[in-house]
Amino acid sequence: MPVVRAGESIDWLKRYFDDGEQSTAVSVKGSFRSMDWLSDLFSVLRHYPHVKVHGLSATSASILHTPRWHFDSADSSTWLKQSSMGQMPIPRFTQGKPDYRQKPDIISVTDRATARHNHVTDLADYKRERVDKFLREHVGIDLGQARPPNQCIAALPRMMPCLA
């Protein structure tokens, strides 16, 4: 599978696709400085509708929810790294529903969390209510289940990684 990194020439990919390549991986690490490059890439990919695109390090809301870009799959280690530090992403809400197009708040939930500025015990009431609502209504657990010693391994199929 051909891999192209943000900022590299797209010409090689065109050659692969013209020769019948069916998929590619696109590394978007650092792509906030390369959004124009991604736009150029997907403009080229419109001419190759058979090509499946996998995004490497491509799980930010600004990348996944740009309408003119279409990743068939994506991965990154961000969620795992956050959860290993006792943090979990909590989406913002729009009209009462989680809005995954917006950047989530990263909330610390363990006492060993490295960041205390957004720790669940120190949140303003409105933020704490949003955390409780998301966990209860969209994940199916309460905050006590998301914090040690309970962990939230059982909730993994229903939410982003939370291996605190």
Short description:
The chain contains six helices and eight strands. It is an alpha/beta fold and 164 residues long.
Q: Would you write up a description of this structure?
A:
- There is one protein chain.
- By secondary structure, the chain is α/β, with parallel strands linked by helices.
- The chain contains six helices and eight strands.
- The chain has two domains: 3-76, no CATH class; 79-158, no CATH class.
- A hairpin with a 2-residue loop joins strand 6 and strand 7.
- The radius of gyration is 19 Å and the shape is elongated.
- The relative contact order is 0.11.
- Residues 151-164 have low confidence and may be disordered.
How are the SSEs placed, and which strands pair?
Layout: E1 3-5, H1 11-18, E2 23-27, H2 35-45, E3 52-56, H3 61-64, E4 73-75, H4 78-84, E5 87-90, E6 92-94, E7 97-99, E8 105-108, H5 125-139, H6 143-146
* Mean pLDDT metric: 80
Q: How many domains make up the coordinates? A: 2
Oligomeric state of this protein: single chain
Percentage of β-strand residues: 15-25%
The largest pleated sheet is described as: 4 strands, parallel
Q: N-to-C terminal Cα separation, in Å?
A: 34 Å
Low-pLDDT sequence parts: 151-164
Strand order of the largest sheet: 1-2-3-4
How would you sum up the global shape? elongated
Topology pattern, helix = H, strand = E: EHEHEHEHEEEEHH
Count, helices: 6
Please estimate the helix content. Answer: 25-40%
Classify the secondary structure makeup into a structural class: alpha/beta
User: How many individual β-strands?
Assistant: 8
Query: Gyration radius, to the nearest Å?
Result: 19 Å
